[in-house]
Description:
- The protein has helices spanning 4-17, 26-33, 47-60, 82-99, 153-159, 163-180, 200-203, 216-220, and strands at 38-42, 70-74, 120-121, 124-131, 147-152.
- By secondary structure, it is of the alpha+beta class.
- It has a 5-stranded mixed beta sheet, sandwiched between helices.
Amino acid sequence: MSSWQSVLFSEFEAQMCSDARPFPCIFGVTGYRLDQLRYLFLDPFEVEILGDQLAQFVAESRSHGPNTSLVVFTRPRPVQTLDAYYRKFWLMLDQLARLDKSPWPEAIPEQIDHPMWEFSFAGEPMFVVCSTPAHVMRQSRRSSSFMLTFQPRWVFEKILGTEKAAAAAFAEVRKRLIPYDSTAPSPLLGRYGARDGREYQQYFLHDDNQAESGCPFAKLAQAKTPKIDDREQAA
């Protein structure tokens, strides 16, 4: 019970189970309570292993239930800055893209600065969320370690199938976000495909509601493959 895996999962479980302080992501809470989520514990944090496991999850995901996601926990390290985690997150996505053996989905634009762009792996478009120990004001994105959640796009299509259902779901998420976080809901949050929205900006939210200028994914894709340093020295 004292292992880092158990400690992190207990923290996650407490978030998902709280009735007094309900976690804003109603889809994640439902998936947890119905035992439809799947979990991966990485030590060390190796993107090659993550890619193998993510591909397996994609292949099996539709058998897990309509609210499934893959939640990835990594061993706690000395806390870094939010900017350092931001760079690590996008470096990880860039490396995953390089490792992907499947063709990019035809329905998803390859240009990231497009309202219909979404990160895809093993042929599956998915919404990606990063949580870190450096998030203070935005508790909905806080974890005691670098944590990732991969949610297939088809999950949203099933549970947000009508305009009425989508409006009700997003209203509930926003209602929960306001008391949960100590900062206002990010103006970057929005509906997938909205003309003025960019999904990649929602993957990693800063505490101060400021968006990064440009996206490192586009820059990294043109460079040689760098490596993630999992030693994470304190900043």
